[in-house]
Amino acid sequence: MHDITLTIIVFVPAAAALLVLALPVQTDLQRFRVRTTALFASVISLAFALFDLLGEVGNPAQGALPQPAIDAPWLRGFFFQLDYHLGTDGLNMLLLFAVTAVFPLLILASWRRRERYRTYFALLLLIETTTAGAFATQDLGLFIVFFWAQALPLGLLVGLGGQPGAAALGRRLLGWQSISGAALLVGTLLLLLRSGVTSMNFQTLTTVSTVKGGVGLIVFTLFLVAFGLRMGLFPLHGWFIDSVGAAPAPVGMLVAVTSVPLGVYGLVRMALSMAPNAALQLVVPLLALALLTLYWAALRARGEPDLRRMGAYGLMGLSGVMLLGIASFSEVSEAGALYLAFTLVFIAPLLLLVLGAVSERAGALQIAPLRGAAARAPRLRLFFALAAAALVGVPLLGGFPGIFQVLVGSFPAHRYATALAVLGLLLLTAALWRAGHRVFWGAAEGQAEATVADARGSEFYSGWGLSAAVVLFGIFAGYFMPYVIQGTDLVSARVSAAAPVVVPHSPGTHK
Amino acid sequence: MALFNAAWAVLLLPLLGLGLSYLAETRRGIALGAAVGSALTLLAAVVVLATSASHPGVTHGANLAFWSYSVTQTPFNAAAETVLSSTFQVGVGYTVDPLSAVLACLVAVLALLNLAHLLVQLHRDQRIGSLARTTCLLEFSVLAVVLAPTLFQLLIGVELAGLLAALLVAAAQGPAAGPAARRGYLVWRAGAASLILATVFVYVKFSGAIANAATGSKRTVPAGSTGLDFVALNHMWLAATHGLVTGVGGRTLTLAAVLVVVCAVAVCGVFPFHGLWRSLGVAPGAAGGLVLSLGGMVVGASLLFSTFDLLRVAAGVLPALVVLAAVGSVVAAALAALEDRLRRVSLWVAGSLAATVLMGVGLGTPGAAVPLLIAGTLSVSALAAVTTTMSRDLRVESLGQLGAAWRQTRPTVLLLLLALLACSGLLGFGVFFGRAEVLAVAIAHPAAVARPAGVFRVVAAVCELLSALLIASVAGRAAVCALRGGEPRDPREARQVRRNLANAKRLSQIWPAVTLTGLALLSGLIALPGVPGELGGFLAMAKHATVLPANGLALALSVVVPLAAVLAVAAVRLGQRPWAGEPAWLAWADGGRLTLGLEQMVFGWPARLAVGWYERVANPAEQAARAALGQLTARGSDLWRRPWSWEGRSSSAPLAAVALVAAVVVWVAATHAGAGAP
């Protein structure tokens, strides 16, 4: 039963994509059928993912090892073995659930789309398959397949956006994500060749493979490039900002929810676990990169005139916080980073939904002419307030548990970096509030106010669902966190085992 | 004892009000629903206070955890530190002692009257629904702070209170509301960031020790302590001073205490964070500013009350707090004395009183600060309500307009003067006894729990008297302006003023402001010895050993000094508008320019540098590289097509061929390498 469950979660959207391509779209009713088919497929995936989640989270001990696993040989006869191996544990279960949960809402957010119906929804479903597949797999080879395959539908979707420069934007995204995939592939090949391991099973690779010295550094750096690109880390963030900021709002949301969590997951699951020695050697550059990302994002968001790009910089800032959590090598901070990635899957679409709606309806991308434009749209204002507050870690909202865990986990190891991260979050708050008060609370001027209507229909339901998720996962984080920590515990233990032996303080030492 | 369970109702009834407001359909119904929730909260708070008063010395608490899990962590570089091992628990709960019960009553009264004020003032306004709902949530947040049993709940309450108060300010109309809310929230969030760091720091440093103490053979803290509850933390802070907590010493305690104090100072808008008050002063709709100021005063003081044991044992923190608060008190009072605009006057007065409350805590006797906190919040609330009414209904914005107002709408101006009387503590009203108690601690009383050195107490006493003098001079100025001021000389302006003043409401129509002023005037009596129950002394005893009746010297000084100020102001010959216009240096002094300058320094030039670097260097370089690549791969490019193209058309075929060859080479090499391995 469990074996089929994960396969259903991953491949039902792909099957629905083929069905969608075969459906006619001449009349309104036919178009409605296309949308409903896409929604139905994603809801099926969500239902199965929820079933899995509830079955596993109740028993946190299951977070340590992959539970519902299917492991069948696929490619043999090379110097590596590639298996069809799916399974969930503390590291990936929540992210898998989040992806399946957010796609129905993304489909709802795209409900009023008019052009290229079949292509749009088919690509959307394919992206769900590749993203869910990347999270569900327990085999590095299969992960690379899904990871790289995601780039094509995503690039096409961005390229078909319809706005000026969409094709170039799509090509750019495809190019950068391909570089990311290539870096991962080269790193993996190097890892396999050097360690002499043939199996690409995560369990085997994290327990048997040992890459140290220069090769370990190269492998880790390649992994960092691969996943850092997806996270939008400085200085590899250009494509991310452009894609999220310039593509149509639902596509921008898609880029954010598929790329950043996958990058965080990859860094924890692969980079830290498979090259722990190199990770320890690079701890200072990693911290510098985390803080640079956070501060760069905050300062650029402060000076950014474009509303949606400002939102993209806000998301980039959180990537810096997540990297800080990862670079602290503590099970608590890594769990915080993963939980932050999990909640980001709901926060990012909510933020981009609002910003996209405002700029689209007001017909302006710049913040300045939007002054007070949404002052009389209370639902949009509420959604923005929730998303922005969750993004900067206001308690009882989605971002807070992850951020707090990151701070708690990183403080003992890097207290100054932690303090600087808190300051960076304050800068990010300033940037978001600046845009917020201008657009949502500022005095109305000119014609902009009349053009921005409040959220209605599918947009409202989508925003409402995302808001509910942001609040619920902020309040009930404790229900999920032990399960995640079970997963990160193993990663942290592996890094600690690679660390040089240290002498703890003797009891009674005062500081 | 079962009535202690009403504390849950105190905490949750504001949320019931929020729910009721969603059931209503009309604007007035929404506000009424919120007000009903607030009234029930007040009722529950009174029940809890009565129960608490009948069982003095009993502390009752409960906690509903929604995060709870075990976690053990040892950082990879454990040579630096070895930490944490505990059950991490986060939830909502309460601790009821007499002090927290009184503060809960205070918060409920203020929220109820504020909602009533909203109903009276804005019943035709579209925003009343969102304002009432936000007020309900704000009340919940401040109650969560006041009743907090854990440091974590304190953090949650502080963060939410700041956000909701800023949203209230931002909901006001006019272009100044947004910037005021933004600056106010940034100051608040700076404080909250400090509290986040303090929470993380305390958790990391103490949770392991608390877990050991809770489960050890000789259990020294209650079983199930979470590492962040105040009962266990107070025990551990004391134990740390005796060297009984591994890895924790004076430096740790001091750092944690400093972080808490920074938060309290920021949310109270005390120097150097006093720009908060100025920003709120320019915000239209003083209801938001009022709530933020009250939230600030109550939240900041509660924060210090809850963590007082830490402040007490941390070296040098209380004296630093005294100096900071003393300076802040005088600066804010001086700015109030120099200010012409009524709303800003009320906010500067609030800042000065908040600083004086902190000074009382810093002097080592939180009990002495409680009467001043209660009287101060009520007085400031009354003053803000009256100034809002005058500004909204009569368009009276400055002291210079009080003369004309006095002639036409005497009751409203009288109400303003009474509210100022309560704030200045003249003649025994309002904050008089609270100030006297703080002064008594500073100059005379030896019973403080942690008494700072003499020099700090002298500084506190001098600054307390100086700020009292300055605030009294504000009241005197207002009275003189009202009695001696005339109408504007320009006939057109005078006509306009008369027309505006004709809209004056009767006192019965502004009954929330009248009620608040009455409460403010009488609020000082809670500290007066001889009043049945002697609530001031009761409060003081319940929380910490402290002064009981203020001594004669403090009482005498508290009467004489403000009176002298009023008489001195009255004796000076006044012009038509003696305080009109704002000198340039004042804008620097009152924190506005300071805030702006800091904002420019922190956000301005680094942001410009980042943007400039990107626009002038990174972006052009990237564009040039992309253009060059595009030119190279362009379909018509001879450079690309001739040597490499597939039938002169495709540019990807040769690349694919090269990649394929490379892959084959790698594969063959790898296979050979694998074959050679044992």
- Category by helix and strand content of chain B: mainly alpha
Q: Within the largest sheet of chain A, what's the order of strands?
A: 1-2
Structural class of chain A: mainly alpha
Q: Detail the poorly predicted runs of chain B.
A: 529-550, 573-581, 635-651, 674-678
Helix content of chain B: over 70%
The end-to-end distance of chain A, rounded to whole angstroms, is 55 Å
**Biggest β-sheet of chain B, characterized?**
2 strands, antiparallel
Global Rg of chain B = 30 Å
Order of helices and strands of chain A: HHEEHHHHHHHHHHHHHHHHHHH
| Strand proportion of chain B | under 5%
Contiguous runs where pLDDT drops below 50 for at least 5 residues of chain A? 445-450, 503-511
Task: Return the average pLDDT of chain A rounded to an integer.
Answer: 85
Element-level helix/strand string of chain B: HHEEHHHHHHHHHHHHHHHHHHHHHHHH
User: What does the oligomeric state look like here?
Assistant: heterodimer
The major pleated sheet of chain A works out as: 2 strands, antiparallel
Describe the structure.
The complex is a heterodimer of chains A (511) and B (678). The longest helix of chain A has 32 residues. Chain A contains 21 helices and two strands. In chain B, 71% of the residues lie in helices and 4% in strands. Chain B has a two-stranded antiparallel ribbon. The termini of chain B are far apart.
Question: What secondary-structure arrangement, pairings included, does this model have?
Answer:
The complex is a heterodimer of chains A (511) and B (678).
Chain A: H1 2-22, H2 28-57, E1 70-75, E2 82-86, H3 93-109, H4 117-136, H5 140-149, H6 151-159, H7 166-195, H8 202-208, H9 213-231, H10 238-246, H11 249-274, H12 276-281, H13 283-303, H14 307-327, H15 331-362, H16 378-391, H17 399-410, H18 415-441, H19 448-451, H20 457-475, H21 477-498
Antiparallel strand pairs in A: 1-2
Helix pairs in contact in A: 1-2, 1-4, 2-3, 2-4, 3-4, 3-11, 3-15, 3-20, 4-5, 4-6, 4-11, 5-7, 6-7, 7-9, 7-10, 8-11, 9-11, 10-11, 10-14, 11-14, 11-15, 11-21, 13-14, 13-18, 14-15, 14-17, 14-18, 15-16, 15-17, 15-20, 15-21, 16-18, 16-20
Chain B: H1 6-23, H2 27-54, E1 60-72, E2 85-96, H3 98-122, H4 128-146, H5 151-170, H6 177-215, H7 230-241, H8 250-267, H9 275-282, H10 286-306, H11 308-313, H12 317-338, H13 342-362, H14 366-394, H15 402-408, H16 410-424, H17 432-443, H18 454-484, H19 491-501, H20 511-523, H21 535-543, H22 552-571, H23 584-589, H24 592-633, H25 638-644, H26 652-676
Antiparallel strand pairs in B: 1-2
Helix pairs in contact in B: 1-2, 1-4, 2-3, 2-4, 3-4, 3-10, 3-14, 3-20, 4-5, 4-10, 5-6, 5-10, 6-8, 6-9, 8-10, 8-12, 9-13, 9-24, 10-13, 10-14, 12-13, 12-18, 13-14, 13-17, 13-18, 14-16, 14-17, 14-20, 14-21, 15-16, 15-18, 16-18, 16-20, 17-18, 17-22, 18-22
